[in-house]
Structure formats: C-alpha cells, structure tokens
Specification:
Layout lengths: L1 H12 L38 H10 L1 H15 L7 H9 L2 H15 L1 E9 L15 E9 L3 E2 L19 E5 L9 E5 L3 E5 L5 H6 L12 H19 L2 E7 L2 H5 L3 H20 L11 E7 L5 H16 L3 H4 L12 H31 L23 H20 L5 H9 L26 H35 L1
Antiparallel strand pairs: 1-2, 1-6, 3-4, 4-5, 7-8
Helix pairs in contact: 2-3, 3-5, 3-12, 7-10
Amino acid sequence: MFKNIQNKIANYLSKPNNNSRVDGYSSVFTNLGTKRSRTNSTFFRPTLSLDQYTLAEIYKSNGIGKRIVNILVDDAIRGFIEADKLLLKELYRVKAKQAIIDAGCFGRLYGGALLVAFVDDEQEFDKPLNLNRIQQLISLKVFDRHQIYWNDDDLCNDFYKEYYGEPELFTITNNWNGLSDISFKVHRSRCCIFGGDKIPNSLRVNNQGWDVSVLQSCCESIRNYNLVNTSSVEIIQDFVQVILKLNGLAQKMAAGEEVKASLNERIDLIDKTRSVSNSIILDGSGTEDYEKKASSVSGLADLWDRFSENICAVTGIPATRLFGKSPGGLNATGASDLQNWYDIVRAYRGDQIEPCINWLLDILKSQKSWTDKPKVWEWEFPSLTAPSELEWAEIKKKYAETDAIYMDRGAIDPIECWQERFGRGEFHVNIKLSKPEPEELIEIDDDNADLLAVEKNNEEDKESKEDKEVKDIVRNTYKKLKNG
C-alpha cells in the first residue's frame, strides 16, 4: 500500500502541468502550492465600473461618498486666495470660487470636467483665445465629462504642442434631461481641465480619454462600511427580545380558532398594560412567565472603527477629517495624519487650482472693459491651518520683534514695512520690500566709521568746489556776451 502511494506521488510530480506553480514549495497531502490550494485558487476579480447614474446617486444619497469627493476640493479652496481687493472683486464678479469648486468636485466624481470661460474676444468659441482682443470675461460655466465629447478630427496633430494627441476642440452639450440637445464647440484655450483618479493609458482609451471617479477605487470599502451600519441597525432593533411563556401553548394552539383568538387577546393585553401603565399583569398560578433577553453588542464599536479605517486607508483621508472623530490611543494627537493630509491638499493646489487661477488671471488682465485694474497681481493661497486668537497674537508678536530688529539696524524702512504689513486692511505675514541700493549694503565697521565720515566730507567739499568753478565760468561767459 505504501509503495502505491509513493508511485502516485512520483507520477504526480513527474507531470508539472498538474501543479499550479513550480517556483516554491508544494505538498500533495495539504494541497500547498498545487492547483487545489485555496491560496492558488484566489485571484483578483475586477469590480464593475460605476456608471454616471450610479455615481450621481452615491453623491446625492451617500454622505461618506459625497464627503470623499468634496473634502479635498473644499480644503484646497477654503479661504480662496489672498490678493489685492480689486482683483478679488473681479474674481467674485465672475463667481470664480464657486466655479472652481464645482469643476474640482465634478472632475473627482465623474473622472473629468471642464471649466469654460465665455469670453468676448470678437471670435467664435471654436477659435483660439486671443488675449489682445478680449473685451470682457462674461461668465464661467462647468460641464462634466458626460456632457463633453470629441471626434478624431478634433485631436491635436502638432508634435510641438503640449497637448499633442489630446483634443483641441471639445463639443459640449446641455442635454441633461433628454428634452433639448443644444451643443457647441469650444477651443481648448478657453477651457481649464479638471481630472479624477489617474489610470493607465490602455484603460483611458476605453474610458473615452478621461480619468475615473475617485469613488471607483473605494466603492467596496464604502459598501462594506454601509453594510456594517445597516447590520448594526438590525441588531439594535432586536436588542431586547420579549419571551412570554404559557403552559400548554402547543395544545391550546391546536385546540381551535377560538383558543387562538383568546391567546392573541391575552398577548395584546400584556403589551397594552406594559406600554400604558409600565406594569405587567400575569397569572399568579404560574401558568404565565414574562422574560426579557438583551442581545450582546460587545465589539460592535471596534468593528465600526476597523471598517472606517479601511476607508481612510484607500482614500488617504484621515479619520479626523473624513469622520470628524478624535484620534485615539495614548498621546495621540493626530498631528502626523493631518500633516500628511495637508501635503496632499498642497499637491492638489499646485496641480489643479494654481494653473486654473493663473489661466483666469491672464484673461482678466487682458480685459479692455476693466478700467479699475489693480497694480499688484501677486497672489497666494491662505494657510491650511487657522490659528487661535492666542496663537495669532503670538505670531504677530514674533513678526513685530523681527521687524523691530531690522529697523534698529536700518535694514528696512519703518513706513514701507508698516504699509506692507497693514496697508492692505489686515495683517500680512509674507511681505515684499524694495531692494536697497548697493551703497546701502556696505557693511561699516566701528573702527572705520570716522574714516568713512572724513572721506564723505572730502567728497562733499570736492563737489562744492566743482560747482563753484562751474558757476564762475558761466558768470564770466555771461559778462563777455553782455559787453559784446
């Protein structure tokens, strides 16, 4: 018998096609490394792609899904930008902040969106934007990727353009409800493109050249988290079960409909007395017994935390921001998680928001109808963290002490420093001062200060002597001309 087993093993090992892998250990007794192994029979199964209607319903009805889409854009654009008041007023006129928020959110939700600038530059929308002929920026409109399409003729074939192989013309339709189909073409220079989650080029071809929704990679985690929530509600509903014991219940149920009706009346009576008078009336002979049993919910909170941590892991959003929960554990502050999140927000600002604002500023600068233009076009994002009043007072104090040191050394002008710090209506941390003249940068030693003063007096005397000689020459020349 043992010899037969050996022969079977030898025959099995002599046929590598029967094994699912040949690069590691295998055992025919435990199926380790064979095609019957539970590990080797586990493969990655691609999930279904979320269509536009499913994404819209998730965004509308699921709070976690909507928060995942919005939170990065909201944190990036919070406070908008710090710039001159005249520039901010013009940006508010065209509702630039809300347009950027909508474009960023719809881009993350659907995998792509366009922010289109409707500009009066005396040209058609399908022509490149002419900055030299812009009369006014009329408005900004946002269109998601399902309202946009293009043909092969709309692709850029110029190797020397940065968007070679990408659409140069977009066809936009307002067909949201199927009742109207108004479409128009717009040139790429009149648009700012917002994307979603990056995917390989092979998948972008099948996705009409767009990214995918940020909800695609975390849809399973959101589903599992919602299942835990729903199951927990079912547990709470059955948290307390009432047990009513009646002697001879089985016999009474088989006796007839009249007995069943009397039993139902008895049960209804017990429920009514318990609800109205908060008391239960039972038969004293011991034929009835009333009992409550509670279900155990131990470990339910930990289960919620584990599934919520899974969502945070796949989205990169810390629990303090996504779920609004305080960090747990000894000495836990959540500072490192927030710092990592702020790095992600800064990266999104640099990749999506900053190019869009610079594109808008180029259009605004060229407006001929805008006569009240600012003198300063520099701008910056506000800080991601909002200090408390005490922290803000400490910050102002530190800057005041630093400015005072520079003023005492004569490095900066007090009036110019005050103008940069407070001249724009509020305190500014980052200021730009005028560059000193080269002679003002010469370092003066205490030992050479008197020599420099003597040299300066000599230069002044020399200049005054030269001025006197010039005046004498002019005076003598005038006298000669006067005497003929």
